[in-house]
Amino acid sequence: MLWNLWIGVVALTLSHVAIAAASVFRDPDTGLTFASEFTNYKINQGITYRIATPPDAVRGEPFDMIVQIVAPNDVGWTGIAFSGSMRENPLLIVWRNAAGNGVVASTRWARGHITPEPYAGASATVLRTGTKTNGTHYQATIMCSGCSFWRTASGGTRFLIPNESNRIAMAYSPTRPSNANSNTSAISVHDVHAYWPHQLNQGVNANFRQVVQTLQ
Ligand code: HEM
Ligand SMILES: *[C@@H]1O[C@H](CO)[C@@H](O)[C@H](O)[C@H]1NC(C)=O
Ligand SMILES: *[C@@H]1O[C@H](CO)[C@@H](O)[C@H](O)[C@H]1NC(C)=O
Ligand SMILES: *[C@@H]1O[C@H](CO)[C@@H](O)[C@H](O)[C@H]1NC(C)=O
């Protein structure tokens, strides 16, 4: 098993100091291998962001991803900005549902540093496999289509490079969306954001399509 571990220190807004750690994660729930990143959003508390990709993703073309996010229950919402910054790229955000026994995922798009809108160019399907909650955490496993390729307002194409590390970003808010069962709920602004190079090449799965077919 190849473990590639690095520790980085990232300064966050609000003077928070984050410890980021990348690893390869073999997920017992889905059977997929993920490129995994653990990032602190407050002192001694972190969120894990994992991405699994298909073996035949082509540079410059869209590919599906399985995204897994593990967050402590005090995370109101958290999300990934796939371009590594907030504006003009698919944002994938997750939160606990109103009953606290499930997870809602939503795709958004920000025209600026303003409240992002629901984004129809990508779709996020919460899979039952690998999605769970308990007394301390919630975990979402999501099929994200349209999250790896997008067009900016000026028409340029942008994409994740499947066999390299790509800078992506996270954001965190302590406030759960007001209409927690709706994936178009209003959300409140984040307290913290952070960036890291996500090593997508470490989450490539030779049997991606076969495995994904079995996930519900
Ligand atoms: C109500 C919703 C939101 C509001 C009002 C908002 C507002 C802002 C503002 C004003 C900044 C600039 C802060 C600074 O420069 O210090 C910012 C930065 C940022 N936001 Fe948001 N945001 C929202 C949602 C989101 C979401 C859903 C994500 C990602 C999932 C996100 C990701 C980021 C990131 C990564 C930055 C760092 C600067 C950048 O890369 O553009 N934001 N946001
Ligand atoms: C909300 O969920 C519906 C049904 O799964 C989906 O078609 C739609 O794209 C989602 N909207 C957002 C903003 O994620
Ligand atoms: C709660 O769920 C998280 C995320 O799935 C997991 O890492 C943790 O071990 C679980 N805790 C218990 C006590 O089962
Ligand atoms: C990724 O693949 C391209 C060809 O599609 C190749 O030119 C490039 O060197 C590869 N990058 C790495 C880090 O392997």
From TrEMBL:
Residues 1-22 form the signal peptide. It comes from the Eukaryota. InterPro entries: Cellobiose_DH-like_cyt. SUPFAM superfamilies: CBD9-like. Gene3D superfamilies: Cellobiose dehydrogenase, cytochrome domain (2.60.40.1210). Keywords: Signal. Residues 25-209 form the Cellobiose dehydrogenase-like cytochrome domain. This is Cellobiose dehydrogenase-like cytochrome domain-containing protein. It comes from Podospora aff. communis PSN243. The lineage of its organism: Eukaryota, Fungi, Dikarya, Ascomycota, Pezizomycotina.
